[in-house]
Specification:
- The complex is a heterodimer of chains A (250) and B (254).
- With 250 residues, chain A is α/β, with parallel strands linked by helices.
- Chain A has ten helices and nine strands.
- In chain A, the strands form two sheets. A six-stranded mixed beta sheet of chain A has the order 5-6-7-3-8-9, sandwiched between helices. In chain A, strands 2-1-4 form a three-stranded antiparallel beta sheet, covered by helices on one side.
- In chain B, 82% of the residues lie in helices and 0% in strands.
- In chain B, 38% of the residues are buried.
- Chain B has one domain.
- With 254 residues, chain B is mostly helical.
- Classes of the chains: A alpha/beta (250), B mainly alpha (254).
- At the A-B interface, helix 3, strand 5 and helix 4 of A face helix 1 and helix 4 of B.
Amino acid sequence: MRYSNYMSQEHPLIVTDIRKNFEKVQAVRGLSFTVKAGEVLGIVGPNGAGKTTTIKIILGLLEADKGTISLFGSTSEDLQVRKRIGYMPENPSFYKHLTGRELLLFAASLFEIPSATAKTKAQDLIKMVGLSKAADRALQGYSKGMLQRICLAQALINDPDLLFLDEPLDGLDPLGRIQMREILLSVKEKGTAIVFNSHILSDVAAVSTHIAIMDKGQIVKHDTVKKLVPAGKTLEDVFMATVADSKEEA
Amino acid sequence: MKIIWSIASATYREIIRERLLYGIFLIAALITGASFFLSTISFDQNVRVLQDIGLASIHVLTLFITVFVATNSLSRDVDRRALYFLFPKPVSRMHYVLGKYVGFILFMITTLVILGGLFSVGLAVIDTHVLLAAGINIMYSFLEISLLLALATLFASFTAPLNASLYTLAIYFVGHSQSSLRTFVAQLNNGFLNAVIKTVYYVLPNLEKFDVRKATLYQVPIPHSQVFWTLIYWALYLAIALYLAVLVTKKREL
């Protein structure tokens, strides 16, 4: 399905009624939402809620059984569209013999970024994620937190208009989490739309403009942070109440 | 093209940093040493013995090493989530398959250069006239192993690395026995078996086309037309195997 130019410019991401089953398990059940430019959508939910599966379907890593996804008015099959997307997967470990810098230059080459620009961009990102000292060491020597940082850097190498982050705060120490939050806020300031999921609810509330609470493959609540989390309450309170309600209904 | 080359170069770097090359150097030195030793026990044909054993060993070792490395590299990309790094970027499944394949070819060339180079140095000490024949043999080894690597890439796209390696090696053995099998089955006078072997003959690669070791050892000239048709056969088979690998990879969910 192709969306009108106006609609797709306004909303880089439009998800309509996607469904995905893994044999008898309904991983995603009729999910619909949109993300506007400059919007940060934080997806929260218990383990197995379908958060990662949703991101994988949007990116074309998994095929939906039903439903449509519009990325900038096209689909994830479109390589030109993918030039505008950044993705940070969960628990990255990929090329263990490459150095952090080599990984970034490799990522840049896949976007066909000219070599000189790529080197400058890689250096800037290495500095931004705080890996200047480790940049020329092989990834196999990186800690989990360092891998998270370099993985975020590779997701930003193309200055994406739409950024997907799967558990970006996982494995980071408190300082790392603060830095990651600051980076995400600076990316958001540039007008990049961000979709991310995390179990660290305080960070989700601090970074997001919108929050979707998922449970059993469905979005059970989706709204702006201000509307979803009333004054005097925390996202944790809302989350616990929502998931408890969802369990009772089931 | 740039994307394919980027993936190839990353694949190659990942492989050669595995410390596997140190092992290959050691094996190469052992083979060369063993070939020289064996050549001394032959009376008047030491160069021929050296050439025969050395070239066969280089061929088989390169095949085993590269097939094992290739199938494991493809499987590791899944285990280490490298595909999650690649596919959300402007990388098609075709870019990926061809990039990996070119990376394997670069590694195979490195292996052939190391093994063949050491062997040629040893050979040159005894008789420089046979160097050209050794070179021709290594070129044919390149053709055959590159074809088998395309099949290994295809198998690794849908099965575990050990299975993919075993299937490829099974094709290697069957591919080198096709004429003998056909002759044997013809003597049995069994229509069904004949049909099966005929199908195998046309479906599986006939690797005997790439075996010129005896011809070069006994200095029998290889006709130009034979070289031409071998190259056409190689290119067609390679293209089909890689095309199928791309198709399977496109269907794969991550």
